[in-house]
Amino acid sequence: MPTALIVLAAGQGTRMNSDLPKVLHPLGGAPLFVHALLAGGALTPERSVLVVGHGAEATAKAAADFDPDLIIAEQSEQLGTAHAVAQARTALAGFSGDAVVLYGDTPFIRPETLEAMQAARANHAVVVLGFQAADPGRYGRLVMAGDRLERIVEYKDASHEERAISICNSGVICADAETLFDLIDAVSNDNAAGEYYLTDIIAIANARGLSATAVTCDEAETMGINTRTELARAEAVFQQAKRAEALENGVTLIAPETVFFSYDSYIGRDAVVEPNVIFAPGVTVETGARIRAFSHLEGCHVSRGATVGPYARLRPGAELAEDVHVGNFVEIKNATLDAGAKVNHLSYIGDASVGEATNIGAGTITCNYDGVFKHHTEIGARAFIGSNTMLVAPVRVGDEAMTASGSVITGDVPDGAIAIARAKQVNKPGLARKLFDKLRAEKARKQQKAE
Ligand code: UD1
Ligand code: CA
After folding, report:
1. pLDDT tens digits in sequence order for the chain, 451 residues long
2. Does residue 446 belong to any structural domain of this protein?
3. Which domain CATH number covers 241?
4. What whole-number distance in Å separates Cα of residue 105 and Cα of residue 14?
5. Domain match, 62 and 47 both
6. Distance 224 CA to ligand 2 centre (A)
7. Based on the domain organization, do 218 and 264 belong to the same domain?
8. Is 345 a catalytic residue?
């Protein structure tokens, strides 16, 4: 069955107390709305529509950055959840199949739950995701008759008896797209909130002889984010799950509670991650690599057997081949290091390529930026870069070449050559001792004067 996703994200999110639209606040390194799309991805949707309203421009931009195929539908006035879904109608013109409605601020719905809903569609026209609420509070209540869902009543409109129902509406709904829009056309705003409730489609469906049911999930999946406190709690839940997943996948985490992952982190089996490591988005670490304490990685790839840190920073475009060593206080950006290359101490390697088995001495810097343009540094294989070399890009150091410590390299170094680019050393015999005597005598004179 072809599927389309409709993710509602037009609400203001006032309680975040933020200039940033709620759904753009990051969770696990991705904007909140992305998590709903990732869960929905399990249904391999043919189209995905994000309904935006408050902060529409910024949200649409973030959506395009995440997935240029996402369709944006604008809801300029937030008149309720049914009205929000109706905004996706044009985007789904010509689509035939199921539509699944998700909320952009509800990140933990599991793909398996959506699959269970889709399976229930075999016997019912409309499938709603419900949950047993520990505290039903202000959630909409599911009025069931056996496995049939008769209607959903919003808290504000519920009677005393209806409020006693503890099975609640998560907001996730699945129905044939055409049927969904037909039902929404019949929704009015004649209720306590004066809103077009999506939940009203259940009673309308039943009145038309279409059956509805509810699939239930764990309440934890339905957690919505409304405040910064809830966002922080959600981040903790997210990290907890990611750590458990890494351990399950055979990754050693020495102090799991101090390691932070992103939604797309991939860490291979038998990799070791020491305490206090942050994986920002876009990181893959292969089998058997070791990420030592206090390292920060983003947009990079670490191959088998490589070691990183302690205190290393791998920025986007850092590509480490097998058995590469990147040591303490080293920053790598947009640079490839071939097999066995070593940059062990206090260096910046940016916009560069480093050949296999090359050793980069402590304090080496690729001077990649001239204030306007970025330039590339190429270092060959089995080369030796002396400590504290400045490589002023664009520049190339050949295979098996060397640079003398403290050199400022502004021109290419041929294969096999050594470049010495620093002032020649001059020794003045006895001059240091003379200078010391003079300075100490001066100090003694000054002390005498002061007494
Ligand atoms: C809704 C459900 C309620 C359910 C609860 C679960 C309705 C009428 N009620 O209530 O049964 O228990 O969610 O959390 O559907 N949105 C728009 N445009 C709008 C209105 C809402 O995009 O015009 C988006 C919001 O940004 C939000 C989601 O839809 O992501 C839900 O809206 P919200 O106002 O929070 O609904 P609730 O009143 O909580
Ligand atoms: Ca809500």
Report:
1. 899 999 999 998 999 999 999 999 999 999 999 999 999 999 999 999 999 999 999 999 999 999 999 999 999 999 999 999 999 999 999 999 999 999 999 999 999 999 999 999 999 999 999 999 999 999 999 999 999 999 999 999 999 999 999 999 999 999 999 999 999 999 999 999 999 999 999 999 999 999 999 999 999 999 999 999 999 999 999 999 999 999 999 999 999 999 999 999 999 999 999 999 999 999 999 999 999 999 999 999 999 999 999 999 999 999 999 999 999 999 999 999 999 999 999 999 999 999 999 999 999 999 999 999 999 999 999 999 999 999 999 999 999 999 999 999 999 999 999 999 999 999 999 999 999 999 999 999 999 999 8
2. no
3. 2.160.10.10
4. 13
5. yes
6. 7
7. no
8. yes
Beta pairing class for 325-328 and 307-308 = parallel
pTM for this prediction:
0.94
Biggest alpha carbon–alpha carbon distance for the chain: 109
Is the beta carbon of 361 within 6 A of some atom in ligand 1? no
Q: Which two tokens stand for residue 352?
A: 């560069």
- Rounded distance, CA 236 to CA 257, Å? 10
| Total domains present in the chain | 2
Both 214 and 240 in one domain: the answer is no
Whether residue 142 has its Cβ less than 6 Å from ligand 1: no
The single-letter DSSP state of residue 32 is: H
- What domain range is 61 assigned to? 3-222
E strands present in 79-166: 98-103, 126-132, 141-145, 148-153
Cα 238 to averaged position of ligand 1 atoms, centre (Å): 23
Q: How far is the CA of 171 from the centre of ligand 1 (A)?
A: 7
Q: Phi/psi of residue 207, each to 5°?
A: -65, -25
Chain center to CA of 450: 65
DSSP alpha helix (H) spans, 95-227: 111-120, 160-163, 177-185, 201-207
Rounded distance between C-alpha atoms, residue 169 and residue 213, angstroms: 12
115 in a structural domain: yes
Please report which ligand is nearest the Cα atom of 222. Answer: 1
- The residue with tokens 């044939």 is 176
Helix (H) or strand (E) holding 219: none
Ligand located closest to 49 CA = 1
| Pair of tokens at residue 422 | 């620093």
In a domain, 440, yes or no: no
Contact 13, 103 (CB under 8 A): no
Place of tokens 């009677």: 159
The continuous run of DSSP H or E covering 308 comes out as strand 307-308
